Amino acid sequence: xxxxxxxxxHEKCTGCRQCEMVCSVFHTxxxxxxxxxIRVIKWEAIxxxxxxxxxxxxxxxxxxxxxxxxxxxxxxxxxxxxDKKKCIGCKTCIMACPFGHPFFDSSERVTVKCxxxxxxxxxxxxxxxxxxxxxxxDRIPGPKRKEAALRLITSMRPPL
Amino acid sequence: xxxxxxxxxxxGLAVKKIxxxxxxxxxxxxxxxxxxxLAGMGAGAYSVGVILGWTWNLSVLVKIFHxxxxxxxxxxxxxxxxxxxxxxxxxxxxxxxxxxLYACLNPRTSWVARGFLILSTFIILGLIVFGTSLLxxxxxxxxxxxxxxxxxxxxxxxxxxxxxTGILLKSVRYVPIWNTLWLPVLxxxxxxxxxxxxxxxxxxxxxxxxxxxxxxxxxxxxxxSLERILILxxxxxxxxxxxxxxxxxxxxxxxxxxxxxxxxxxxFWGGIVFLGFLFPFVLELLSTWQPDQLILLLVxxxxxxxxxxxxxxxxxxxxxxxxHPLHKFLELRATLGPSIPKGRGDLTR
Lengths: 160, 349
Hints:
The structure holds two protein chains of two kinds. Chain A is an alpha+beta fold.
């Protein structure tokens, strides 16, 4: 994998949704979490919060299915972004993403996704719990990767 | 995507029950269902029509405002007209409609772009065949190599269009009920049955409207007998499709449950099973004993078309996305509670 990615540690997330707020302010000028590019999924009953954002996949399905080439990987910094000037709002990328990430912005009538705030993600800057970090994909700490792999294996096992 | 409802004990410690409420997608709505239906029906009608045209060499001239029209050929080759009516529904669904021409920029990997090219080529070439056959009855083009080639190419494009309506959904990898090879096959079978129904209804309408086109009423009965075989085929394919989807993955099973006993059950049992199969099948049997009762054939046709539309709508509405791996983990953790050892994926560590 290339480029920098957002790494989210949901164990640190307190569910304050500050990331959603600053994201919407940065991108739309309005404090409206429904127009944010990051979404926090909440399980209040068991106290779990899961911020979900673009995973900057190595083989992104959103770029594969985009008919207008609006969703593409930037050659310069390897970020997967959507060019709003080309997007036709067909929502195919929304259906294609396994992480449910790109969102349809009904105000602008196009699909939007995390663009890493041009290299300075606001969610990272404003997260007080330091649950989101922006690091090189190749430099994600080894134990973190191992832990993630173990979680994935556990989740794939059939229930007892 | 699905979501999880967890009910905890009063102490708030052990998770007693986990209830999965899987929500079907709402991204693609009725506009796409109408498009899938009209494009499928038009492509199917053209495929059946071209083959019947080769077999029968049917020609029925009708004079309207002192101009001769070959209505028989117009009906057999009229499929592209239905596709041309259906295609704008795709544009209606777009966020920025005036950019619809951008939809063909990535045919290398995008099925939407490939579909755009297939559909537009089929509409253009198909309308040329349709217009020429309808408006120039005096010109006998049968046997001309160019005409035969044009018919063969448009037939190929019609089959591709019918298959494409299924492939468009199949290309969405993370919706198990769509991501199966059975879906394009089912949509092709449905396209052929609804297409032949459209031909039957158009033949009946022309036969009743113009006294000189009485032959079309007889032909309508012949097409209806072919249609019966196509309905049976479609029913068998639908059963296989639902069975394999049910056995496939968790969300495939959820989608089938949504159709069988969930909130889409009325659409499935009423719209697809009753209107699409049982009711028309009984009426068709009755119409074989009472061939003079044209009303039977008419109601059968309308019922079949409604069934074809509900089939697309139900399949579209029942699409449930596969869960995020971490989502699955959280479900498992909530189910098992403290039994997952620490360091092996325990989130509370």
